[in-house]
Amino acid sequence: MRFMAIIQVLSDLLASQVAAGEVVERPASVVKELVENSLDARAATISVLARRGGSALLRVVDDGMGMDREDAVACLQRHATSKIRTSGDLAAIITKGFRGEALPSIASVSKFTLSTRQAGALTGTRVTVEGGTVTEVCDAGDAPGTQVEVRQLFYNMPARRKFLRSEDTEFSHIEQQVRVQALAHPEVGFRLTRDDRCLFHLPPGGQLLERIAGLAGAELTERLLEITDMERGPVRVSGFIGEAGLLRSTRSLQFTFLNRRPVESPVFTQALRGGYGEALPRGQSPVVFLRVEIDPAAVDVNVHPAKREVRFRHGLAVQGALTEILQETLRRGRAFRTTVSLAVPDRLPGSGDGADAGSTAGGRPPTPVSGGHHLGGSPGPSPSQEAFENGSRPLAGAELDPDLNRRSAPSGRPMTTPVPVPRWQPPAVQPALIPVEGEHVSPGGNGAGGASSAGPHPENAAAPCNGTAQGGVPAPPPPDASDAVAVEGKVPEFRVTSLLGGQYVVMESAEGLVLMDHRAAWERVLFEEALDRASRQGTGSQALLTPLTVPLSPREFDFLKPWMPALRRMGLGVEEFGPNTVMVDSLPPFWKSDGETPALLSALLDDLRHAGDRAPARRLDEESIAAAVARQAARRQAPQSVEQAEELVRRLLACGMPYCCPVGRPTIIQLSFQELARKFGRI
Amino acid sequence: MKFRISKEKLLEGLQQVQNVVSSRATLPVLSNVLIEAESSGLRFTTTDLDIVVSGRIAVTEEPDGPLEIMETGSVTLPARRLAAIVRELPASEVTVTVDSENTAAIRCGNSFFKILGLPAEDFPPPPKFEDVKEFILTQKTLRDALKKTAYAISTDETRYVLNGIYCQFKENKMTLVATDGRRLAMTEAEVEFPESNEAAVIVPTKAVSELQRLLKDDQGQLVIRIGARQIAFELNQSLLVSKLIEGNYPNFRQVIPGAANERVTLEREAFLQAAQRVSLLAPDKSNSVKLHFTKDNIEITANSADIGEARESIAVKYNGPNMAIAFNPEYLVAPFRNLDADEIFLDLIDEVSPGVIKIASPFLYVLMPMRVSQ
Description:
With about 675 residues, chain A is an alpha+beta fold. Chain A is about 35% helix and about 20% strand. In chain A, the strands form six sheets. In chain A, strands 5-4-3-6-2-1-7-8 form an eight-stranded mixed sheet, sandwiched between helices. A five-stranded mixed sheet of chain A has the order 9-10-15-12-13, with helices on both faces. The longest helix of chain A has 29 residues, at about 315-345. In chain A, about 50% of the residues are buried. Chain B is elongated. Chain B is an alpha+beta fold and about 375 residues long. Chain B is built from six helices and 26 strands. The N and C termini of chain B lie far apart (about 70 Å).
């Protein structure tokens, strides 16, 4: 007897509760599982309601395909799933869920109600479960789709309940979860309600960019670069990435989706590091909304129950391909900036678009939290929204099936239609729903923020866009007049007030206090000038009356020799002049410190050598030379007067990427009035 | 110390010297103007330790003259503040009384100001001159020579010998040279002096600009005194003493090109305006304007990828081969702006060699071209 009692098979309930420990960590994980089920059920609109941070009630309502009574009961069994049938399916999973664990796990730790009706069925079914035991199955007359209510989560697991954080914290996790899903599925409508307040309502049928605008603020979208279905090796990528210099101190705006599934993977992290390269300072994260598609067979999502981690069969190849795509996009972002500034006519949003934008903006709520408004920005009531409310199935399932059709309907279609995100808005501010962190390094975000709060005057709004709008516009420039807001030559309204510590320039803008790092600003200006000089005619190198000769060590000399042509193209006329000596007979026009030219050369050599050491794989190209030239030249610039600082600001803002120096340090930081008020304890 | 003076004279005296006073003086007394009242006149002096400028207002014979010294003495008063006060005074006559505590009482009409000063003894004593060489020339000569060269002075502090005008007195000629390593301006004027007086010094930029301010009167004479470390300019009632830049000025003669291949004669005003117009499209200091030479024509062009392009043709006599040469617009127009001759000659060798600008009188401007990548 004493041998028998030791090992027993767990009861289903206990097994579910154990599984719940892995799957259901906190209310947000319930939301994740339920929303994913809704997505797998081809819902067009999903509403999430949470009371008291989700611990009192979580309700997820969708208008998906629903279930019949048999399925409704069966789905609460462990390992019951509609999503895979054979182990072959497991090898190439295209649905969100597949383990058949989620619902029974959730049901085992809560008071659970599932109501569902198929579109064609006369009546629906309601299943009530308490602590894993089905207590009632009855008819119900709901709208087609499925509604799941989870009450008193962890009521029967006091230990787990104790570990829940504050309501606010738990809710913020839920919010993040819904946001992630909303970004992964812009074609599906999402509504999130906290207690009785609607936090956001994103209409279905949207584009990714609208989603981003709706969730993170329209200003941000101006600094994003679009990736339009780029295929490289094993991956196919679309989405948006922030231009170099658009950085956050947390990863809160870093969204990566693999086959529509939000995932984090070291492979992605590494690819981002490599792609952004030096534009990504330590401790900063780029802003990305990246959708990566890959053959489902080449990736294993069955690593962890929460499926947040994935394993790639060819991780390195994926990483390499991603890195290349990112680099290309960032580079193109720069090139695009310089060309677009030429073509920009002095035109504000045209009549057509203006009206469009106006109506959208007008439809916006003055505050972010009032129910039922379309934050996504598409004007007018959306058809599917009405359909949802009328209780009829809005669109053919096939059209909306995100997973089955994702190949044929590429997620990041080129934006050929005008983006219904207004470039300028009436003063009604639309604060970002995503808390914008790291504001101190987000001059662009703030600068562009001027667009919304600078005032009702369009030109006011246009001005701060100058630096950002051009870079942020997706690459194939939409034939959208709103683009023209980025009026060339308009200087954002930064008023230089004083110089600080011989290093910083103090300015004010409509937004608040702006500080400019004098040296970083010069580096940026000179860097772009050097690149310009290398690439285009019309600028040149100023010849000297008497050439300077600079003796070098043999090592320096050998190192410099191959780079002389590139240096000459950048305006530094270096030539061999006998053994281990070079002659400088012309200098870039900005370089006026002839006496320090030898010092410049040797510092330049140091920089180049370091650049070579740091990234042996990376080609030591003109860009790194330009960066080194700019770095050395900028070291010798000191702010002398307010007038000079103003001139520098003007030149900085004319740059392709004014907000960071060539190695990614910010040139301008801003302390908004709000932030100041907070610091002074007024908020 | 007490004197009565007309408001205009007092203001004039202060304005002549207040420029030297730096707003961030290292010693408080350097912000002040030294005012010395002697029975013959009133002297104002300021200094920044490199330059001393002083001006004098003499007492005239007539009974109700603009200046009357009631009591001699000296004091230093804050220069800029004093000038600001005097500028705003309500009446035309000012009486200044300074007590033993160096406090000045300024009365004018119904206004009364009391200004705290510092003792005159605190003011740096005037520099001593040794081995002085003296030159006498007309103010006009020096004024013209400075105007033709001063704009080419280098602002690059790393080559401090270029931060001034090189003045050479040799073989009865005064030669002035200024260069920043990219262009060089040189002019000569006849000045008589004994051979033993030959000298060559570098006058710093600040002294040059102060001197230009003082050199208003075309008619008067000017005395230049050159010492071992200083130079003094004495004109009218004013005196300017400046330290010299010590160091060797580069051998400028070697950068002056020999014979030119082509010479075009330009009408100064017309060319200046055309070049300035075209330069509007090269606003960035790193841009260049290009001169395209074809038969009897120069086309000035500028283009900026961000803005657009500009071109303007000027008819000239030109028979040489077609060529194009690029210059920094600022460097190109500077001599045209500062010369007053109507005809200006531009001598060229080829597209990559320096251009030389000349006029009928002894003047030369060597201008290095910009190399534009093709």
